[in-house]
Amino acid sequence: MVNGVQKEILDRWNIDKAKELYGINNWSAGYFDINQKGEVILTADTRDGKKEISLIDIISGIKERGFDMPLLLRIENFLDSQLTSIHESFKSAIEKFKYKNQYRGVYPIKVNQQQQIIEEITRFGSKYHHGLEAGSKAELIVALSMIDDKDACIICNGYKDESFIDLGLFAIKLGYKCFFVLEMSNELDLIMNRAKIHKIKPNIGVRIKLTTKAGGLWAESGGDRSLFGLTTAQIIETIDKLKEYKMLNCLKLLHYHIGSQIPNIRDIRLGVAEACRFYAELVQEGAPMGYLDLGGGLAVDYDGSKTNFPSSCNYSLKEYCEDLIEIIISTLEEKEVPHPVLITESGRATVAYYSILLFNVIDINRFDPPKVPDKIPDNSNEMLQNIFEVYKSLNLKNIQECYNDALYYKDELHQLFKIGQITLREKALGENIFWNIMVQIVKSSIKLKQKPIELEGMEDALSDIYYCNFSLFQSLPDSWAINQLFPIMPIHKLNLQPSRQAILADITCDSDGKIKKFIDLHDVRNTLPVHEVDDNEDYYLGVFLVGAYQETLGDLHNLFGDTNVLTIRINDDGTFDFDRELEGDSISDVLSYVEYDIKDLSVRFRQSAEKCVKEGIISGADRRKIMQLFDEVLRGYTYFL
Ligand SMILES: Cc1ncc(COP(=O)(O)O)c(C=O)c1O
Q1: Which of 170, 178, 362, 591 is the most exposed place for a label (fewest CB within 10 A)?
Q2: What is the pLDDT of residues 176-190, one digit of tens each?
């Protein structure tokens, strides 16, 4: 039996409770944890064992060096680690099932195309011959300049014009393993034409439209009506054309992509099985083939629930690799087709863990209605007296009734105010009483076995708003555009129990600039548990797993620009280096992106100020001060300082 004292000890807040509340061990893939001081730490495997760095220590270091929040923190070790995991998992699956060919990974540049990421992927990935996927001429330029390793593949997807094709053909001449994947059947004529002119034999691949559709937020990327890829009839047309050109021996690769973040392993299995049937048929048509490219889709478990929920996945990396290899073997061996080089284009799984968005809370709108007085004046309006009675009589048994009555009297008071029957002060008192009733109802309803349906979601209406120093549109566009969930949590004070529930608002003045959905193991939370914050206290939150797509898709809403970016590497001895620093956009940067001439802006403002001097509104010295401030702000960071 657990007695009262023991229960109290068990109930007491501790670090394990914090880990459980934010689910950090479920979604962190071992890269993040909480230390005994209640701070979120990075944990990296180094040659000298596991090393831990507190995010708060990193923030102190950054601030000392004059960097401000918000900040995108990149951890190079995690990128290397993810590449290693993907390659080692495929290697184990290949050995386990005795697959008679190799795995080659390619990273799709569009997922996060920043130079330092591509540099690290090609540098560290060269030991695995990790290649790149390019979907445009610009991305092909990146791939050709960054890849040194001629065993790494360059996969050219996307629409290709003459110069794209010429560049790819010359890459082949230079010895790159560069493939043109046909997205549309009419691309073939152009490729053949350019190949003939340059006398270079192209490596051709076909992207197929699979019937298989993957569930999740990107389901539209797959299925018969997907935007990209060739239909079965177009594939036949392509084969016939290649035979006509006597160039069927150029057809070497089959590619498909049924969507990003595929949460259900069943869809992955169905997709690869269907693709293998196409592959076997192409071999039987006489194409040499040799490469099977399964595209992206390997999911990241953002909420840590290990389910087929869109923010999660019901499989591990090991299962993903083993299932793919097993199905390829069984489908192709049936038709006696040799095992191809297996390519995947995992973007999200490669880079998601690499970046964290860190920001400070700049203001709080607490939901704390002022206390209700013990008595209200005897001559108060009847409706005011009624709502006060409801407040006094509220108990566990009459929750529902009090809820209905309170709503009714609040509406009545509102009507009375409109026709001038009660004063502003009486209206304010009535509303205070109403919100106090709601707070009491929410507190009491926790104790109810069955909560009245009307009370569902009531906690959300009573939550605080924590105003945070970031732009959702710039730094977390998928949260706004497709309601993607990311793990979010305070990065310190976790030795204390969070006592408030909040939604997060950004500093754009857009009503969509808020986060009001948070990860949960069994559901989606409508509020985030956060700490009470004193005035002048720094309080930091982190949004984790933001390395994929967020930087690429971000935009300049309200002219908030790129954040400061800092890349660190955790050393074997547990120290860390600030590897690369990128200063975020200044106000003059973002203004020039939207075509302002900065000098012209200064001139215009100076002329306005000079006019005021002439009219005697300000002095010449005032003008100098104002212009100094103008220039300083222009050169400064776009975020809250
Ligand atoms: C053709 C292609 N390959 C690969 C990817 C990357 O997918 P993921 O990030 O899910 O690995 C994408 C993105 O949607 C894609 O369009």
Answers
A1: 170
A2: 999 999 998 889 999
